[in-house]
Write a structure and sequence with these properties.
Helices cover about 30% and strands about 25% of the residues. By secondary structure, it is an alpha/beta fold. The strands form 3 sheets. It has an 8-stranded mixed β-sheet, sandwiched between helices. Helix 9 (about 250-255) links the parallel strand 15 (about 240-245) and strand 16. The radius of gyration is 18 Å and the shape is globular. It starts with a strand and ends in a 6-residue tail after the last helix.
């Protein structure tokens, strides 16, 4: 019997239209009514996860929100922070200054604002089309925008992660240089082809959840996790059942306990329907 369901958002719970399908939504509501705990675990900041937590009624069932790749865990019902680990301010400032030497778009956020160097300089070319990454991130996280010519000067709040956007080929070619000076102080990883993210050293989704689960009596062998991206590796390895979406990257397909259909084909519902008791 499973006690908890861990779900990545983009590419996993959400379809390519950034929606939860009706079938998947209903099964998750039914399983919560049976006492299963649903956990949304994403690289997104908390503000970007909350609308989907509300849609799934996590506030009624005591679900959890794991944001910024595991840097913060929030109880959806009480709004209590159960775990948090921000990047040390000195490290965050050093990283942001280091990034000025690269052709990338760094972003940081507090509870209300997303801070960027230039709100008019957010264009990338993705799949042959122009794409405004600053607009996309600010809308997805429900943030207002603030400019800071030197982002390091804007830090007077906990920096749970530093998001670095750029052309996929450029990021791949420069990833080692982006992270190089800080590998002993922070964790850097790709979360999508156009995203490289920094969190505090050792932070990942599973480490944060293990801390919380031990306090509330959930055993990892009674956890099922779903993911598709590199930053889901920790939860796929951590859970008793780790499920790779059909659209998952090769690294996740290799380590998963099983594979399901894609995020656009109710892959989560296909697996979870086996665990309904009613």
């Amino acid at each position: 019997m499973i006690q908890a369901i861990l779900l990545d958002l983009d590419g996993t719970l959400l379809t390519d239209q950034k929606m939860i399908s009706p079938r998947t939504k209903q099964i998750l509501l039914d399983l919560q009514a049976e006492g299963k705990k649903v956990v949304l675990a994403s690289g997104r900041p908390k503000r970007g996860i909350e609308p989907f937590a509300e849609e799934l009624r996590l506030h009624e069932y005591g679900g959890l929100i794991v944001s910024s790749n595991g840097a913060c865990v929030t109880d959806a019902a009480t709004k209590e922070t159960l775990f948090e680990q921000a990047i040390h301010p000195n490290d965050a400032r050093a990283i942001l200054d280091h990034l000025t030497g690269f052709d990338v778009i760094p972003m940081i956020n507090d509870e209300t604002y997303m801070y960027v160097n230039d709100v008019f300089n957010g264009m990338l070319e993705l799949n042959g089309e122009p794409f405004n990454i600053i607009e996309y991130e600010s809308r997805g996280g429900r943030f207002r925008l603030r400019e800071a010519p030197r982002l390091a000067d804007a830090i007077n709040f906990p920096v749970y992660k530093i998001l670095v956007a750029g052309q996929p080929d450029y990021l791949q070619a420069h990833a080692a240089s982006l992270a190089g000076p800080f590998t002993d102080r922070v964790t850097g990883m790709f979360t999508a082809a156009m995203y490289y993210e920094f969190t505090d050293f050792g932070i990942d989704k599973a480490r944060a959840l293990d801390h919380v689960f031990q306090n509330i009596g959930i055993s990892r062998d009674r956890v099922i996790a779903f993911g598709d991206g590199h930053n889901d590796r920790s939860i796929i390895e951590y859970a008793g059942i780790g499920v790779a979406m059909g659209n998952a990257v090769e690294d996740i397909l290799t380590i998963a306990t099983e594979m399901t259909t894609s995020n656009n084909e109710d892959g989560i519902a296909t697996v979870l329907s086996r665990y309904l008791t009613t």
